[in-house]
């Protein structure tokens, strides 16, 4: 298509009008019909990523495996249904995510409940629904779960999420496996956690888990984590005759946003699979089920965000600003951790860049600049800006800051766009509000 093909959905092309098209849909026409900001998801790209994971695990690991989509990356009813149809389970981290997934018809048994904070109500909801596994993050959570399940006739399968003290190379805000991380049980309390489980008839220790961070491009920390988990698995077997059936190295596989190359999923699965097979053989352990939890690498590239350029601002000797009709409230990543994106003008996608501009969001924060120094054709108000790799951690983190309604989301498939989440309305903004009773003025 153009420079940086690998960051746009696999079906992206430019048509004879010079418009960006995704999976047979002219995005300029979609922007006119549905208004901007608008998010598109390419069904073919998601399916391809799911297929790649299935194949990579089949070739890379001799044992059984399953893929749990980390729904925090992006979730609504249609996305949950789509993932289930692709043969993926779901990783959910809140009562809200669990609710949406259940309402979408995803079997609870195919879900894992995660999170460093799970309230009593959320644990009760998960137990009642029958989620496949609860991934325990703290000793307090373990104590509560033990109490909540004490009368259960069938023990609840749980996994222990460990904080492995492994520093993966990524932004501090998305690193999760280091020693000071708020996530996971410190290794020092592993024995205590196991004692607690052994004294809890309502709990069964099914597996061990780590998640090292997001946007990772190096398999060494994953291999290190597998070794660390297998050492604990071996100790459990030798000491208590407990054989765990599941190991999860989490998610975190890196994707391309600008010039970087996405992490090769086949190579990643091979390294992880090999480490698991060799590690089990060396310790005399049976092969556990390998559960992985990719979020970003399933959905980021499938997403394109469309914004209208509403105004521009020029200052001498400085890049011009393009002011767009969205920004940090639909995509917080640049403001939160300086995430980088690439963009093009979707209505003039065949034109070459002629200047470097900053793309400023509409929200009342100076930090609301989605892109800095991005090369584009000369843009004016009315142009349509498309941001690549916008499917993950954008709408799922969206807010109503400045009381701006959140954008619509379309699924595009074989020339057809389906509205899977409508744009919010102004009425939605006050749907939870209650007006004060009329108060008379001047009374005492
Ligand atoms: C426990 C867990 N699993 C999976 C993921 C998904 O990570 P990613 O979207 O980078 O694949 C996360 C993200 O933070 C996570 O915390």
Number of helices in the DSSP assignment: 12
How many structural domains can be distinguished in the coordinates?
2
CATH architecture of the largest domain: Alpha-Beta Barrel
Please summarize the sheet with the most strands. Answer: 9 strands, mixed
CATH C-level class of the largest domain is: Alpha Beta
Which regions contain 5 or more consecutive residues with pLDDT less than 50? none
- Global mean pLDDT: 95
Output the radius of gyration: 24 Å
Structural class: alpha/beta
Give the distance, in angstroms, between the N- and C-terminal Cα atoms.
72 Å
Write down how many β-strands occur, each being a DSSP E stretch of 2 or more residues.
21
How much helical structure, as a percent, in the residues?
25-40%
Give the percentage of residues in beta strands. Answer: 15-25%
Q: Which small-molecule species are bound to the chains here?
A: pyridoxal-5'-phosphate
CATH superfamily of the largest domain: Alanine racemase
Shape estimate: globular
Looking at the structure, the CATH topology of the largest domain is TIM Barrel
Describe the structure.
The chain has 444 residues and is of the alpha/beta class. The chain folds into 2 domains: 5-42 and 300-429, Lyase, Ornithine Decarboxylase, Chain A, domain 1 (Beta Barrel); 43-295, TIM Barrel. Helix content is 28%, strand content 23%. The strands form 3 sheets. Strands 4, 14, 15, 16, 17, 18, 19, 20 and 21 form a 9-stranded mixed sheet that branches. Strands 5-6-7-8-9-11-12-13 form an 8-stranded parallel β-barrel, surrounded by 6 helices. Strands 1-2-3 form a 3-stranded antiparallel sheet. Helix 6 (139-148) links the parallel strand 8 and strand 9 (156-163). Helix 2 runs parallel beside helix 9 and helix 6 (139-148) packs parallel to helix 7. The chain is globular, with a radius of gyration of 24 Å. The mean pLDDT is 95. It binds pyridoxal-5'-phosphate. Pyridoxal-5'-phosphate binds at residues 70, 73, 91, 114, 176, 211, 214, 250-253, 293-297.
């Amino acid at each position: 298509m153009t420079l940086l093909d690998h960051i746009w959905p696999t079906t992206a092309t430019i048509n004879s009008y010079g418009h960006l098209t995704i999976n047979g849909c002219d995005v300029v026409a979609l922007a006119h019909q549905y208004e901007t900001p608008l998010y598109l998801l390419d069904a073919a790209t998601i399916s391809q990523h799911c297929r790649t994971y299935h194949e990579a695990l089949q070739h890379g690991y001799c044992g059984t495996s399953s893929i749990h989509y980390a729904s925090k990356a992006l979730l609504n009813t249609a996305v949950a249904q789509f993932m289930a149809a692709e043969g993926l389970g779901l990783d959910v981290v809140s009562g809200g995510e669990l609710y949406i997934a259940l309402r979408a018809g995803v079997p609870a048994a195919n879900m894992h409940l995660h999170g460093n904070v799970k309230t009593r109500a959320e644990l009760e909801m998960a137990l009642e629904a029958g989620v496949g596994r609860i991934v325990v993050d703290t000793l307090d959570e373990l104590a509560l779960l033990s109490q909540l399940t004490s009368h259960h006739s069938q023990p609840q399968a749980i996994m222990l999420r460990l904080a492995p003290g492994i520093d993966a190379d990524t932004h501090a805000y998305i690193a999760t496996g280091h020693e000071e991380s708020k996530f996971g049980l410190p290794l020092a309390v592993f024995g205590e956690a196991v004692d607690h489980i052994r004294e809890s008839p309502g709990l069964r220790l099914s597996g061990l888990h780590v998640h090292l961070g997001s946007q990772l491009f190096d398999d060494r920390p994953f291999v290190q984590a597998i070794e660390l988990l297998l050492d604990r698995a071996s100790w459990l077997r030798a000491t208590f005759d407990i054989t765990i059936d599941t190991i999860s190295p989490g998610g975190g596989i890196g994707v391309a946003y600008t010039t970087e190359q996405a992490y090769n999923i086949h190579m990643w699965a091979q390294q992880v699979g090999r480490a698991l097979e060799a590690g089990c053989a060396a310790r005399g352990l049976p092969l556990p089920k390998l559960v992985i939890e990719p979020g970003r690498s399933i959905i980021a590239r499938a997403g394109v965000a469309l914004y209208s350029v509403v105004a521009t601002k020029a200052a001498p000797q400085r890049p011009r600003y393009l002011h767009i009709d969205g920004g940090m409230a639909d995509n917080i990543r640049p403001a939160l951790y300086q995430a980088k994106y690439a963009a093009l003008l979707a209505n003039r996608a065949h034109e070459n860049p002629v200047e470097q501009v900053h793309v400023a969001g509409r929200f009342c924060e100076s930090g609301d600049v989605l892109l800095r120094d991005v090369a584009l054709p000369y843009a004016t108000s009315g142009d349509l800006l498309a941001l690549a790799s916008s499917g993950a951690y954008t709408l799922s983190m969206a807010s109503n800051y400045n009381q701006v309604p959140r954008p619509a989301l379309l699924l595009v498939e074989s020339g057809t766009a389906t509205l899977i989440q409508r744009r919010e309305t102004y009425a939605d903004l006050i749907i939870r509000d209650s007006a004060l009773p009329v108060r008379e003025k001047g009374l005492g």
